[in-house]
Each structure stands twice: as C-alpha cells, then as structure tokens.
C-alpha cells in the first residue's frame, strides 16, 4: 500500500487551499501540503514528491482575461529554477501515475490547459472552456449531483448522488463544437451531472443547474479517469454541520467521499 502525498497549489488568488488540504487528510491522505506556486517554480518543491495534485478554488489573477486563463498561460510557458518548463513537470507527474483534482477555479484551469476532457487521449489540446453563467450573476447555492456510473473516473467510483455547494460566476461548460461534446459524452467523460432533486435526472433547468451547462455536466474526467475537474466544492462539505439542513438530521454523503475515491485508488495501487 503506497502512501498518498497530496500537493495543494495556492497563490495568485486561490482561496480554498486550506479546506482542500483538510479534506484530503480527512479522506485518508498521509500528507497534504499547501504550497505556493512560486515555491514550485523556484524548485523548493518538486511535483515528483507527490502523487495527488489538487488545484483548489478561488479567483486566480482576479479572473483577468477569463477565469484561470492567465494561470494556464503561466503553467504552459514558465520554467522552473533549472530551466525546465513547468508543463513538462506536470506531464511527468501525470505520466508517472499521479492523480489530479481541479475544483471550481481549478477545473477552469484544467480545461484551459487542455488536460480536460483530453478526448481520445489528446492532452494539452484545448477543446472546451467554462464561460459565464446563464443567470449572468455569481451563483452561491447547494446542488444535487449524480455520478456517471459508466465514467472511468477513479474519484467517483462507488458514488451515486452528492449534495454540494457551488460558488462561481463562470461555470457554464462550453465545447469548441458539437462534435467535441458528442465525443466527450460518448466516451463517458462527463463524470458528474447536475440533477433535478425530484427525478434524479441530468437537468439544464435553473436553479438545479446553476450555470446552464449542456446536459447538466458538472464535472469532466479524462480517458484514464485519473483527472477530475468539477465546479461544485467537495472540500466545503467536510463535516455534517456544513450541510444547510444538518439540524434536521440530513445525512447526505460528505463531499470528502469524492476525494476518498482518489486516495483509495492510489493506496490500492
């Protein structure tokens, strides 16, 4: 059983790093370090020392140029202290079996880096983005989600329905064309969907779908199942008292259960 060492990246406007690290520890990670992006670039921290990488939520660079767009360019074109492009370190991390989780702003980053949905295994080729909510406003509410049972995603294995909070202004998933959307869905890369609380079926109806994503898509995985990006915040439901109806005895699965799937996959190795 291998140890699960988690790296949570912060800096440039990230603000959910502490909750993400806490949730990883609750999920069974042996180690969860919060590290500034600048430390990674300076070589004080190495991606190779970890096997679970979390890009948490927040407002990278104030969402200038679009949510996580500047951060995506930073990862693509900056080098570490030894002159090695950071994107090569990220590729090596993934090729060596590492897991990557992007939450909200982190999901926006993964999509704009081209790590999701990586249709046909074509990584770092951007085929989708996340745009303004149809409501034209910031959405802060709890939503019902269903896991796609046919998805290869290791994080969602064994999960059915989740109740998690969203808090975003740019959460509507858009593909470069209909062909890309059909290909992603045909490969079951839509790992999580917003569902209607009564029918349990994927929905585009507001407010159950808070942003208007087509087919209710709330999260994407890659063909390997080792990368997951989602707009809702699993780390924000890390204790029963986080639930809006906890005083009424609500007992929905904690958001931590999603991270547990990734930890379990690594430990079973």
TrEMBL record:
Is this entry keyworded Transferase? no
What GO MF terms are annotated? ATP binding; hydrolase activity; phosphoribosylformylglycinamidine synthase activity
Give the keywords, sorted: ATP-binding, Cytoplasm, Glutamine amidotransferase, Hydrolase, Ligase, Nucleotide-binding, Purine biosynthesis
InterPro entries hit by this protein: Class_I_gatase-like, PRibForGlyAmidine_synth_PurQ
GO CC annotation terms, alphabetical = cytoplasm
Return one Gene Ontology term, BP aspect: 'de novo' IMP biosynthetic process
* Superkingdom of origin organism: Bacteria
Quote the protein name from its UniProt record. Answer: Phosphoribosylformylglycinamidine synthase
